[in-house]
Amino acid sequence: MDIKGKIYKDFLHRMDRFKIQNGPDKIKNQHNKGKLHARERIALLFDKDSFEELDAFVTSATPDTGFGKIDEAFGDGVVIGHGRVNGRLVYAYSQDFTVMGGSLGTVHAKKIMKVQELALRVGAPIIGLIDSGGARIQEGVASLSGYASIFHRNIQASGIIPQISVILGPAAGGAVYSPALTDFIFMAKNTSHMFVTGPDVVKEVLNEEVTFDELGGAEIHAKKSGVANFIYEDEENAIIGVKKLLSFFPSNNLENPPFIEKRDKKDKNTDKLISVVPDDPNKPYDVKKVIELLIDKDTFFEVSEHFAPSLVIGFARLNGKAIGIVANQPKVLAGVLDINSSLKGARFIRFCDCFNIPILTLEDVPGFLPGLDQEHNGIIKHGAKLLFAYSEATVPKVTVILRKAYGGAFCVMNSKNLGGDYNFAWPTAEIAVMGPEGAVSILNKRELQKAEDPIQLKKEFATKYRQEIANPYIADENGYIDEVIDPADTRKKLITAFESLENKHIEQPSRKHGNIPL
Description:
By secondary structure, the protein is of the alpha/beta class. It has 3 domains: 35-246, 2-enoyl-CoA Hydratase, Chain A, domain 1 (Alpha-Beta Complex), CATH 3.90.226.10; 273-429 and 471-500, Alpha-Beta Complex (2-enoyl-CoA Hydratase, Chain A, domain 1), CATH 3.90.226.10; 436-470, no CATH class.
């Protein structure tokens, strides 16, 4: 055999070893755990045959540490590369739990850093498919250093390219902070877990028995902590969700979101909008029905649906163009703002502002949630985050007041004086320092104390307050809103308003950055 033939034979032998490493047995091991293999996840995410892998044949930096030999495996437990998602360039890394439990060692970390740097360099989104046992203990401080370097690159890329984390197995200890630094987190039920310290440590330190799901399962993080923005029944649907989410984003902060032609060329019939808001101002309704009537059909993609549900946030399309929506939800706690909903809204607004996504605010808010728990846990500081986010955002911002807009919550929800570009109100809007019942209890205290039927008199005073003080025409006539509009005209008004703001530009003052009330 000539030298050339031997070289090619060695090449094929190397490729065969690579195929064996990623063979049926490894895939079966993952399937037995209810999970997909790292390469199956990549195949689901990217358009067919578009993925180009990088550094597939690198090996561990420390194959033998004296604490037991590490498997001599290609790739060091992570698949990295780039490809096309719905035709657009995207970078990704996918941790391979079948190689050393997907643990992060020096080489593993360098591969992730490499793909982070490339994504930032070319201005493309990056997606992390997480399935890792955490830092590789055998490599000691080097693995911790690797995590810190990844975190640093997450922060460098923040606001420049979209970053998405998909938790498809364990993410423990330091491994949770890279996802936490990214823009959105997906989790799959039953197989995804995130926690800083696991159940064993909790048992040892606090003597508390807790399961993996109770401590850091998908439902806990979607409903209670708010760490996860999306949860799905399985990995396949989670990855489909990622692809849908990406369709609303530009590739980087210098681009505008992609335009998608409306499927239905006929404009929507919005006459039903007037009947969505009840005549009784204290009766709840579902603001999502308003959203669906305003936006292009079937385009609403809700974010953090299960966390702080008194505020609804999500992406949608209006006449083919991507927008972000922030809406009070009257059917949950009457739509009040509390600590969690303030945090939820502020984070979402800042993302939209980073990536040139206009913001529509649908307002029906009676105020901030009162009580010792809220005050002692910092509703003042956390509510100010929402205020700061709205005021700081320079993207087009349009508000529609559907019903209640009381007190400080009126100011916070993108009011005109906070920087709202266009602020509309429906005839059902009530704009005042406080609700009628509370106001007349103060303003008409003496009359109510003397009245034979104080309940009936209070109702009369409240009705008068709504007519003379809280009605939207006073705000309109004084320039605090731009127009009181017919609900049926809202969609047309919004399309026109956002079109007029397409070239909006605001010169920011020279500063390093503002100091948001963290």
